[in-house]
Design a protein that fits this description.
- The protein is an alpha+beta fold.
- It has one domain.
- It contains six helices and nine strands; from the N terminus they run H-H-H-E-E-E-E-H-H-E-H-E-E-E-E.
- The longest helix has 19 residues.
- The protein starts with a helix and ends with a strand.
């Protein structure tokens, strides 16, 4: 009898423990999503130091471009380190595009009549930009607008007199910037002067704080006093 009473008490204790440890069916309150903090884009200046920094950023994003542009050494960058174009170490993609500049009043460049933009254009190629994705190319141009504009000012001159074709005075017309993916082989074969589909970046475009780089054309050509082509290296103050 005593044994039966002890067994009964043990069963009751275990049952009570099980009831006490049944998890609650009331759902826990959902965790609030993390607050997104907007980060203002770091200002990229228009001087020689910024030009060298953004050049490094360009080849850091797109090291395969070094061979195309004849660059053999960039501080801290291994041009041979890229496995394939547009592939990042983290598996993402990188976009590279040409950068074009124009300003009202610039002299036109004569082109072929079959050129899609007409028999003459004012848009001038000044270099290339790189961004982590094609959708960020406009942001890359906008973030580097001051640098690109200043580079274009130093680069673009008339061949006959080496006079600058851009004006940066306060009352001058705005300098327009655009990017374009390099045209494919067939398009260039049909029309060697075809520059691709230009996508303008408005002056009031507010960029995200994106990783980006800029590589400017390194020299300009002009006619010297002997009537021969001479080249001057582009350098920012």
């Amino acid at each position: 009898m005593l044994y039966s009473l002890r067994a009964l008490l043990l069963v009751a204790s275990v049952s009570a423990f099980k009831v006490a440890t049944v998890p609650s069916t009331v759902p826990a309150p959902a965790a609030a999503p993390p607050t997104k903090i907007a980060v203002a884009p770091e200002k990229i200046l228009a001087g020689n130091l910024a030009a060298q920094q953004q050049k490094r950023e360009f080849f850091k994003l797109a090291p395969w471009e070094a061979k195309k542009k004849g660059v053999t050494a960039v501080a801290g960058i291994n041009p041979g380190g890229a496995l394939s174009p547009r592939t990042r170490a983290d598996g993402g993609t990188v976009a590279v595009a040409n950068v074009w500049v124009q300003q009202e009043g610039m002299p036109k460049i004569q082109t072929q009549p079959i050129q899609s933009a007409g028999a003459g254009r004012t848009w001038r190629l000044v270099g290339a930009v790189a961004a982590p994705h094609e959708s960020l190319l406009a942001d890359a141009v906008a973030r580097q607008r001051n640098l690109i504009t200043r580079w274009a000012y130093e680069l673009l001159t008339t061949y006959a007199t080496d006079e600058r074709v851009l004006t940066l005075s306060p009352n001058a017309p705005p300098v327009e910037l655009a990017w374009a993916k390099p045209p494919n082989f067939l398009a260039k074969a049909f029309s060697p002067s075809y520059i691709g589909e230009l996508k303008t970046v408005p002056a009031d475009h507010e960029p995200e704080n994106v990783e980006c780089g800029f590589y400017g054309i390194t020299s300009r050509a002009y006619r010297n006093q002997f009537g021969m082509a001479e080249y001057a290296r582009v350098e920012l103050p």
